[in-house]
Amino acid sequence: MARPSDRQPEILFVTGKGGVGKSVVAAALALRAATAGRKTLLVEFGRQSFYERLLGLAPGSDHYPGQPNLLLQRWEEEACLREYVGHYLPLQRAADFFLDNKIIRALVRAAPTLKELALIGKATGPHRLRWARSDRDLIVIDAFSTGHFLALLRAPRGIHEAVPAGPVGRQTGTILEVLQDPQKCRFVIVTLAQELPVSEALELHAAIAAETGQSARIVCNRVQPRLPDTELARAARSAGTASASAFANRLQTVQERQSAWLKKLARADKDTLRWPQLYLDKGDALIAMLAKESGQI
Amino acid sequence: MKHILDRHNVIVCTGSGGVGKTTIAAALGLIAARSGRKVLVLTVDPARRLAAALGLQHGGGVIEVPLDARGALHAEMIEPNQIFEDYIRRVAPGAQQAQRILENKLYQQLATTLSGSQEFTSLLRLREAVNGGDYDLVVLDTPPTEHAAEFLEAPERLASLFDGRVARWLSSDPDQSGIISGLVRRGTTAALGILQLLTGKAFIAELTGFFAGVRSIAGDIRESSLDAHRLLTGSGTAFMLVSSLDAAKILEAEDFRAALGDSGYRLAAVIVNRAHPEWFRADQNEIAAGLRKANVPGLEELHAAMRRYYTRLGRAHAEFSRLQGHKTAVVKLAELDDEPTGLDGLARLAQWLTTADRARNNTAR
Fold first, then answer.
1. pLDDT digits (tens, 9 = 90+) for B11-70
2. Chain A residue whose CA is closest to B192
């Protein structure tokens, strides 16, 4: 069935502390949606592709292997800026002339938050700019980790407040509107059931709420499979060797701590998702399994 | 590990976020202090419990960590915004000029984002600490980045912000005619016209104010960057890469090593943190046999899955270690049952780090 022409893709920003498995979670969310029939785009930022390496793809690959509904893109700041400028200058040559000018290049490299604006401008583009419309139902963005993500999220407001008038003021104003609208864009915080990731996730949750008014969905990644406490206690007692008892005891300690951290997370997001630790070391298998087994956002 | 600490007076701990860099930096400082050296650990954003264990607080400056050791361990939490502000006040030609920069709205944007200012201020502070001569060793814990290599590029990124050419153009300085030929000038005037068309007059006005302000300190920023680069490439400085080294991170570590080499830095060691849980060091067959006897549904299978996972990871680490050859030490640390946040935990980690060379081949069984 054709989509009504005014519907534009849902945008999902995935962020969290470094090392919590943000990129894998973003890919699993995208794969899950694509498998369910939604036309999905998975976006990563930066000059180097993480997914190409994780999935062993050829450089410049734009399709997720084995899933025709899922496209891959890598957004690099300068290219985003070039695309943007290209749509406002009558000739591509004029745009190239402009951006290749030495002084402008130095300025773009240097100007505070210009690059952040280019990325978040592109991410919110389908909802704001006629030329940036998209045929996708969902765009999942593997965004930066906490500190850099907040810089990205705060850039439009910062610039909007500094320069409310003129084209820059208007553009940042519409970016802010999209970021605040849960029908258009939502946020996912990935974390682990451990002290530091949890405290960072809670701070990030509050910061996103302060900036956009939105309550981010929390995904607690790598939750150790839970065995009944009584069973683990019995294993610790009746195991045949000291090392096996120690192993069972250790699992129990981890389980107890995990529950405590999950409770803390539930205070910020009562529907916090628990994604299992799968003990798989191959990226594609891990993503496929998580996409299949994990709850919907 | 100890000989690396003994031979250098600056250790830079790099690595992407979430790998336990700060804790490792503190543990390295502790090792050196115990061997009789006077050590300063500079950290950007320590976890709260670690900060509490060391007695660090925001705006607290340098504190001495109470130790029963021959040397001394000092620690400081770097405050990027404060250091940058102090720096601008120091190098700007006058108080008025400094105020003009600090009050500019775009500067305030810059100071709160991560456009290289944290890295730059870390290096400023490092340089000051080394030049001050109060310490035998300074351990720098670098700001969190997405990729380890970003730290190396940051000062250059920041220096380009203070590029004199931009400032000259935007502030339409009369002496520009001598520097740039007429053709280029006409091109740039046109380009700036387009910029105004795209961004508006108000934006250009802020931008002009910003660059006019920073122009006065551009030279000093460049010099500071170069100076920091000299310090980092000097023979007294060693880099350490702290990594979790899962499948994806191994590739990143390779890239980082290449980036370091290209820029003339020395990577002395890769510290693989949380390589496996502590129980993995025991005899796995024995654990499996013991669990079989307990006969709890699902437990044996869980152990088998974990064992396979950490064994495969161990093989990947061994391969990585082999690739490093003899120039770079690869040290593996188990994930401690309790996060090493207190001084006791740090001491335990330090113990591990000093004996890790022996444990190097003690991988999966």
1. 999 887 667 888 899 999 999 999 999 999 998 777 776 787 777 887 778 989 988 888
2. A104
Pick among B109, B256, B283, B311 to test the A interface (most A CBs inside 10 A) = B109
A114-153 as b/e, with b when 16 or more CB fall inside 10 Å? bbbbbbbbbbbbbbbeeebeeebbbbbbbbbbbbbbbbbb
Nearest Cα of chain B lies from the Cα of A50 at a distance, in angstroms, of 8
Q: For A10-226+270-293, which CATH superfamily applies?
A: P-loop containing nucleotide triphosphate hydrolases (3.40.50.300)
Chain A nearest-CA distance from B236, in A, is 30
Q: Round to whole Å and give the CA distance between A9 and A132.
A: 11
DSSP string, A162-198: H--SHHHHHHHHHHHHHHT-TTTEEEEEEEESSHHHH
Looking up tokens 């705060």, which residue turns up?
A: A154
Residue with tokens 């592709």: A49
User: What is the dihedral sign for C-alpha B70, B41, B135, B86?
Assistant: negative
Domain boundaries, chain A: 10-226+270-293
- Of the candidates A19, A162, A243, the beta carbon closest to that of B17 is on A19
CA neighbor of A80 nearest in space, from A46, A56, A50: A46
pLDDT tens readout for residues B238-274: 999 888 777 667 777 777 888 888 878 888 999 988 8
Q: What is the set of domains in chain B, with CATH numbers?
A: 2-161+220-282+321-359 (3.40.50.300)
What ipTM, to 2 d.p.?
0.84
* Strand pairing report for B137-141 and B237-243: unpaired
Q: pLDDT digits over A18-37, tens only?
A: 888 999 999 999 999 999 99
Kindly report, residue by residue over B174-203, the tens digit of the pLDDT: 444 444 456 566 777 788 788 888 888 877
Instruction: Identify the residue whose tokens are 């690396």.
Output: B4
